[in-house]
């Protein structure tokens, strides 16, 4: 993937002398860890999108709020851009450093500040790992619902920045639906509290605005999240289909039957075979597609729902339906799904993970389009995704060492995203825009919307020093990219340019 | 309630010659209804907060999107402020007209555009009544969850503007949690689509920002809402208490027991007596407080929950617990609650309805504070409110014809809101800020937050023509008001100025 625009972006930013900035920050923050030698900076050159790499000018590792405030003030005064990074697990390059910027790493903010089991609230620092919140809440029978695949490693601050989802977000919502309040520090070093324990807050909903803002509006320094009671029971059905479209249709049928599963995941044959070969989950390797449907809640309720879903799956033409007999089998079924990405990694030298969202009803159609495009571009595509909320993750298999395959994979990826947008969907589900999808934003949004995004950004950061070049493309970039405006699912041009 | 600031506000706005504006708009929009004679304007001089009245310069009643676009463009060009109004049922004066502005009334946008039972989505025009959505969805076994008391009359566009709640918002969320997409028209007459059917959208969350923005960012011209399946069954428990604090404690206990009731409402003795006298709901008139707890869902599940809640209520010291025997009794129990405001209106010449939100755990304490303040100010206060989400509606009873009572009621109201903020709550739960709470916003938010609100407003409306003087106070107003900044529930000064 090309980094041309990175270089150009850095070229547009003010060039500050590194030694001078280092000296200024060392003087202002004598107690803060500040990395500047190349070998110390190297581990921070990328996040989870490792194809994009930039060595930051400096890496700051503050350990308290005062240091964050002072750092932001000084960077603002010096005109040095700041990119904030959590655990670095993001998949869209949202925490990709800038050659001329400071990388602000929040990993030392590791404290769980309080857990209130009665109010079902946890107040934590942004560097706390997603799973650590649930572990801390477990003695009270509570947990934090959003569960991105990276939940062992990813931090809640990064979850807020990317509005992270996960297997359970169909039923329990995205990060934005599970965060009650944020403490933030602005570019100018001012502290603000957004939201609160009350259901609604007066004024504009800056809390929702911050979720998914990818570090462009401020630095998250504290997060208050909702905790939920652990469901009494959870059961998983696995249904096999001899046709991908039928499985896609069954997804809509389940929702239309009034069921909201805790998780509703789909895998196609290529993904099934790869996962089975790796994990031995007990998947039916002859099936064209499987659905995994988890139902959670009170025992009696779950049993009713299992019966209803079984009926729907039969009507939709499932060739086999299995209920996980026990907790061990349930864990095995999920393990295959959760390891599907590395499993696919075993059968192909390279793969490219897409992340688009479409309305559920469009699943059969878009799956058909992907199959046709796979043939057209002569590249295998494995589908493994959050079917219930229409969040697709087609994995394009290729070999970067074979002439032209990377380019074909990129072109195919572009066509798949085009199909998502044309079906009324969006270019990203849960991985964010970051650096990766910056050009696709020109496709997703007309000029009016982009202008409004920039104006909102300017409300927090009028000089554009917070994570420049991510999330919201400049109008100049879109003009250069040959911006084609897609509105209401209609593409004015049949072709989507490469990215 | 004083209107001093209205006059001042209008004084700050550009004065355009009425005849000239009328002629301009008539020329630009020959087919649109445009009211200009005093007798035609009179019905629009206030919304549900009838104490505040201003005759608008003109009233525009467009009937299609093109008219809205043209109207906004012309008003922008002419520099004429625009206040948008839905059904006019709002309780905070959000749709109070401006003497120098156009009142844009969206009541003719009455069409239900589509209902998709499979995707569980309704696409409607903004003038559609809240209840009409549920009525239209009923044949599919679906309904629209947020149910403000005014749901027979209020329109979905107004619900979005105020982020309306209702009895069921504890379980099913506010308007923002039930709206998937909006079509809006900006001040400059540009159309935009915010959100979509997908769970998440890239870019900043302008959809959430629009909910509760009180007409300050644009005009809502279409709303796409989630529909939910009607619960299989709903049962209501009524518990009596000999002490208000015990009832408040029971609310927290129910939630802490892992139950999320469909509705959890509280009434104190004064409200109970007034409602019983009016509706004959079968309420225990000797009780100091009652809780109404509705549990909805699948039959077996609801029965389990009824048992659990009954146990919690007993432990909390309920003196009597009754389960509504049938649908008729359930309806009667709710009828008393839903008619509590008019019932209180029958026992007092005037009443002033407050709307503050506090964390649930603070209920016993704040109820105690209200009782003490009621004695101190020698005015009766009836409490009837959404206890489950800590949204209080103290009704202050007074007689405006008795010297000084209105002023005492206002002062008492200020003290009650002060107590809400000091307990970590907010100055409004579901009624919005509008014109009524504009000064309290200076108390709720420090200068930094207010500055950010203004910057966000400017992202959509840099010239300040959309509903000026509502929702977000100017810094000048706060300075004049003697802005005391409350942050994290701490009041720097013990007294809250009158409003």
From TrEMBL, chains A, B:
One GO molecular function term of this record is: FAD binding
Q: Does the keyword Flavoprotein apply?
A: yes
Arranged from A to Z, the UniProt key words for this protein are: FAD, Flavoprotein, Oxidoreductase
Where does this protein have coiled-coil stretches?
Answer: none
In terms of Gene3D superfamilies, this protein maps to: 3.30.465.10, 3.30.70.2190, 3.30.70.2740, Uridine Diphospho-n-acetylenolpyruvylglucosamine Reductase, domain 2, Vanillyl-alcohol Oxidase, Chain A, domain 4
Q: What PANTHER family does the record point to?
A: GLYCOLATE OXIDASE SUBUNIT GLCD
Please identify the protein, giving its name as recorded: Glycolate oxidase subunit GlcD
Species this chain originates from:
Halomonas eurihalina
Q: What is the gene name?
A: glcD
């Amino acid at each position: 993937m090309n980094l041309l625009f990175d270089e150009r972006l850095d070229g547009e930013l003010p060039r500050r002398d590194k030694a001078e900035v280092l000296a200024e920050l060392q003087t202002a923050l004598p107690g803060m860890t500040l990395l500047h030698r190349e070998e110390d900076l190297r581990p921070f050159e990328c996040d989870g999108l490792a194809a994009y790499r930039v060595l930051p000018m400096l890496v700051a590792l503050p350990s308290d709020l005062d240091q964050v405030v002072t750092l932001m003030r000084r960077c603002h005064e010096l005109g040095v851009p700041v990119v904030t990074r959590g655990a670095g697990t993001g998949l869209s390059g949202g925490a990709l450093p800038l050659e001329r910027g400071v990388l602000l790493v929040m990993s030392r903010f590791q404290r769980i500040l309080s857990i209130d089991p009665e109010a079902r609230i946890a107040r934590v620092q942004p560097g706390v790992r997603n799973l650590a919140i649930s572990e801390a809440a477990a003695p009270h029978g509570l947990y934090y619902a959003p569960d991105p695949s990276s939940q062992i490693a990813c931090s809640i601050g990064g979850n807020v920045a990317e509005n992270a989802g996960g297997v359970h977000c169909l039923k329990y919502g995205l990060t934005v639906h599970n965060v009650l309040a944020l403490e933030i520090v602005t570019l100018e070093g001012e502290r603000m509290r957004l939201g609160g324990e009350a259901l609604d807050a007066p004024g504009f909903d800056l809390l929702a605005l911050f979720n998914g803002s990818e570090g462009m509006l401020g630095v998250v320094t504290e997060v208050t999240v909702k905790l939920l009671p652990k469901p009494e029971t959870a059961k998983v059905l696995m249904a096999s289909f001899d046709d991908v479209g039928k499985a896609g249709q069954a997804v809509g049928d389940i929702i239309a039957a009034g069921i909201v599963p805790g998780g509703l995941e789909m895998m196609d044959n290529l993904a099934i075979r790869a996962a089975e070969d790796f994990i031995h989950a007990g998947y039916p390797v002859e099936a064209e597609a499987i659905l995994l449907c988890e139902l959670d809640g009170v025992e009696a309720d779950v049993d009713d729902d299992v019966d209803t879903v079984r009926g729907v799956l039969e009507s939709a033409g499932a060739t086999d339906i299995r209920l996980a007999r026990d907790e061990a089998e349930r864990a095995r079924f999920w393990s295959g799904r959760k390891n599907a990405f590395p499993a696919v990694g075993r059968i192909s030298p390279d793969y490219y993970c897409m992340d688009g969202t479409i309305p559920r009803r469009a699943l059969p159609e878009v799956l058909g389009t992907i199959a046709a495009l796979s043939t057209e571009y002569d590249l295998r595509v494995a589908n493994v995704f959050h079917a219930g909320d229409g969040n697709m993750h087609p994995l394009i298999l290729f070999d970067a060492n074979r002439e032209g395959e990377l380019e074909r994979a990129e072109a195919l990826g572009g066509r798949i995203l085009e199909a998502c947008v044309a079906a009324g969907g969006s270019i990203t589900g849960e991985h964010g825009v970051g650096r990766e999808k910056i050009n696709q934003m020109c496709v997703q949004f007309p000029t009016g919307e982009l202008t409004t995004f920039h104006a909102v950004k300017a409300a927090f950061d009028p000089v554009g020093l917070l994570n420049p070049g991510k999330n919201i493309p400049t109008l100049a970039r879109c003009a250069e990219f040959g911006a084609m405006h897609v509105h209401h699912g209609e593409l004015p041009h049949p072709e989507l340019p490469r990215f």
